[in-house]
Design the sequence.
């Protein structure tokens, strides 16, 4: 039986944020530049509010300038576009992030693609997505970037390994595939229409679970020794009525089979904001 290593994303993210803070301090001292991140939030989604608050707190702790713009849910698409263009032209703003999801009357792609690609610290702009897909330098979406950092830390050289990504979203699945191809992995993208997912996962040296289905992937589906990165965050209700956060992987059943696995919470989640800070620092220095 394999002893399963817990991949501590929280600890890794703390080290990364400390390194970013040191670089920010040097940037201020030597070039008088303070990286600035502006987050736009439309409406009052409680989960988004907590996330935006955490982003602001960690941005400030890293020595960066943090601005949060709260706009009413009723705002028109044209008014939101005008706000994005205003920030594009503000030299003190290096990174712009529009918190998703947006209200149904607003076209998300239109807003994302209105952001200056050089300030697109979420990495969602079509230009950045296209550059990533074709192996060019670009901003990389924060969650896949964090996953790739954790994988490099645990595995080192990934050349030739078979990676199976469960999920094909533009936010995680597709950019993750591009990053793993860059590491010379053999990449399979599985999704809701994939036939015999357990058989495919049995061949995987690396599993990226990003499908949004609580505890879908069982330990018996894994190849012994596989490294598992669980991107899923799902709140389930227990028989006693209490709720619990779980991933897309059935964590207990993977113990003793996977060689390493990220917990939920405390795995990929902390890496996402740390990588947002990394992208913001990069936007301020390029």
Sequence:
């Amino acid at each position: 039986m394999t002893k399963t290593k817990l991949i501590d994303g929280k600890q890794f993210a703390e080290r990364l944020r400390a390194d970013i803070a040191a670089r920010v301090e040097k940037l201020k001292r030597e070039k008088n530049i303070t990286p600035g991140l502006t987050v736009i939030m439309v409406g009052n989604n409680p989960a988004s509010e907590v996330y935006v608050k955490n982003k602001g707190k960690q941005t400030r702790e890293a020595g960066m300038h943090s601005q949060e713009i709260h706009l009413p849910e009723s705002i028109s698409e044209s008014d939101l576009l005008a706000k994005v263009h205003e920030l594009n032209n503000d030299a003190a703003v290096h990174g712009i992030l529009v918190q998703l999801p947006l209200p149904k009357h607003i076209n998300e792609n239109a807003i994302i693609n209105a952001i200056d690609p050089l300030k697109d610290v979420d990495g969602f702009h079509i230009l950045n997505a296209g550059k990533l897909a074709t192996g060019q330098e670009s901003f990389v979406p924060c969650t896949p970037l964090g996953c790739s950092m954790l994988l490099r830390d645990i595995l080192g050289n990934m050349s030739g390994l078979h990676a199976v990504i469960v999920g094909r979203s533009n936010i995680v699945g597709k950019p993750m595939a591009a990053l793993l191809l860059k590491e010379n992995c053999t990449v399979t993208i599985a999704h809701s229409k994939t036939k015999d997912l357990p058989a495919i996962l049995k061949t995987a040296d690396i599993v990226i679970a990003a499908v949004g289905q609580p505890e879908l992937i069982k330990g018996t589906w894994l190849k012994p020794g596989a490294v598992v990165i669980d991107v899923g965050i799902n709140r389930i209700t227990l028989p006693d009525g209490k709720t619990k956060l779980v991933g897309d992987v059935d964590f207990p059943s993977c113990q003793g089979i996977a060689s390493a696995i990220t917990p939920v919470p405390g795995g990929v989640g902390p890496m996402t904001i740390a990588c947002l800070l990394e992208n913001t620092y990069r936007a301020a220095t390029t």
